[in-house]
Amino acid sequence: MKFSALTVLALAVGVSFARADHLVFEGTEGIGAGKHVVFLAGDHEYRSEESLPALARILAKHHGFKCTVLFNIDPESGEIVAGTPSNMPGTEALGDADLAVVFLRFQNLPSQQMKPFEDYLQRGGPVVGMRTATHAFKIPAGGDFAKYSFDSRADDYELGFGHQVLGQTWVGHYGKNHRQSTRIERVEAMREHPILRGVSDVWVQAGGYVGKPTDGQVLTMAQPLDGMTPDSPASTTQPPMPSEWTRTYASSSGKHGRVFTSLYGTPEDLTNDGYRRLMINGIFWAIGMEDAITPDLNISFVGPFRPNTFGNQRHARGIKPEAYAGFESPIPAHNRIEKP
After folding, report:
1. Contacts within 8 Å (CB) and 24+ apart, 153-160
2. pLDDT number for residue 337
3. DSSP code, position 163
């Protein structure tokens, strides 16, 4: 079979395409070739719909992973929405996933969309949880998947997915958004951990969450700052709080999965090189590729990245997944934000 020069180039650098309701970025060369990462973007405030496509492109283009990105989709318009309605087509992609990156908030997905997620956890699939994933689900008692709710009282699954898998459910804020930013520093005893290789000068724009995981290894501590610049003074009333950690969860079937949790992850946070490297390293570690983590791993953005400032229901309207097809389309597709 003969290929044109253009086809050969496309195969070398990777391909991307959009289904009607989700994205696939597929790398063809690199240390991640043959691995499939599924990203679930569905929160109301912290712009997961911008952060996760950006991370997916980095992993696909620079490192060869296949990356599927799922969104909350308005079933009538086909547009990407932020948190509401709870509708995420394409979760069947988790069937052959090697890693799930979860950035959800208070979702109550239809049963047919939750079932592949439950199946993934039952087989002990590794998980990376970002920001609001600690309270990923809010499902009424009596629902088929109510045990995953952040406030679950199930005897065998107390406090739901966040507590049981990520190591923490929703507790509260620890720093005021848009008034306090955060400096993240490594725990000195963990300085040799693979996730911290090459990570330095981590500063994020989001305010903090209360951390303190149930168990595992705390890698970093977050210090709230009284201001929105990296050199803002540290809060005198808020000492550092855990912000990133690793742990292992056990499914009811007896399978175990690796977990990396970060309490941050807005797209503005990703503009900090240190935080972006921390997340890429965490993904490599969770998928079992810690030996491939180097201090100079390529973490550069792929295509234009001009994120919106986070805020509840302050997402850019009118964007469908197809707007992100290709590695060079801007994220977000536009910065037009309208009041709901």
Report:
1. 156/252, 160/136
2. 65
3. I
Six token digits for residue 143: 């629902």
Q: Which amino acid is at 172?
A: G
- Domains in the chain (CATH in brackets) are 20-172+242-315 (3.40.50)
Per-residue tokens: 308: 């919106």
Q: What is the pLDDT of residue 82?
A: 96
Residue pLDDT, tens place only, 249-284: 999 889 999 999 999 999 999 999 999 999 999 999
Contact 327, 26 (CB under 8 A): no
Strands 80-81, 99-104: pairing kind? unpaired
CA 95 to chain centre: 19
Burial of 25 (0-12, 13-18, 19+ CB in 10 A): buried
52/225 Cα distance (integer angstroms) = 26
CB 293 within 8 A of CB 312: no
Can you give the pLDDT at residue 2?
38
Regions of the chain with pLDDT less than 50: 1-13, 340
Q: Which residue has the tokens 């956890």?
A: 121
